[in-house]
């Protein structure tokens, strides 16, 4: 894990501000959905990648009416 030498405090509401330089480098515009994971004593923050609403696949996922579907499930649904 690479340290970037920036420290931020958690505020009274539990928020942490990601430094502007980090957001710009990682391509994180305002309102980007993020996921949180815990690994031992580490908190990992990752850009949210939606999975298929039917099978949870992450391959070739596209949005339809606010839900995400992979190619295989889109084909299966269209054949009904």
Describe the structure.
The structure is a single chain. The protein has helices spanning 20-26, 71-78, and strands at residues 34-39, 42-47, 62-64, 67-69. The chain is of the alpha+beta class. The chain has 2 domains: 1-48, Pemi-like Protein 1, Chain: D (Ribbon), CATH 2.10.260.10; 50-80, no CATH class. It has a two-stranded antiparallel ribbon. A two-stranded antiparallel sheet has the order 3-4. A hairpin with a 2-residue loop joins strand 1 (34-39) and strand 2. The protein starts with 19 loop residues before the first helix and ends with a helix. The model has no long low-confidence stretch (mean pLDDT 91).
Tags for this entry?
80 residues, alpha+beta, Pemi-like Protein 1, Chain: D, 2 domains, two-stranded antiparallel ribbon, two-stranded antiparallel sheet, 19% helix
Summarize the model shown.
By secondary structure, the protein is of the alpha+beta class. The protein has two helices and four strands.
SSE pattern, N- to C-terminal: HEEEEH
How many strands, what sense, and barrel or not for the largest sheet? 2 strands, antiparallel
What is the tally of beta strands? 4
Helix/strand/pairing category: alpha+beta
Shape: elongated
The percent range for helix content is: 10-25%
For the CA atoms, what is the radius of gyration? 17 Å
Cα distance, first to last residue?
Answer: 47 Å
Q: What is the arithmetic mean of pLDDT?
A: 91
């Amino acid at each position: 894990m690479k340290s970037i030498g920036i420290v931020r405090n958690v505020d009274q509401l539990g928020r942490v501000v990601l430094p502007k330089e980090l957001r710009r480098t990682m391509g994180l515009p305002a309102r980007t959905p993020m996921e949180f994971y815990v690994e031992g004593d580490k908190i990992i923050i990752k850009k949210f990648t939606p999975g298929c609403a039917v099978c949870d696949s992450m391959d070739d996922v596209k949005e339809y009416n606010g839900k995400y579907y992979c190619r295989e499930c889109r084909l299966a649904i269209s054949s009904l």
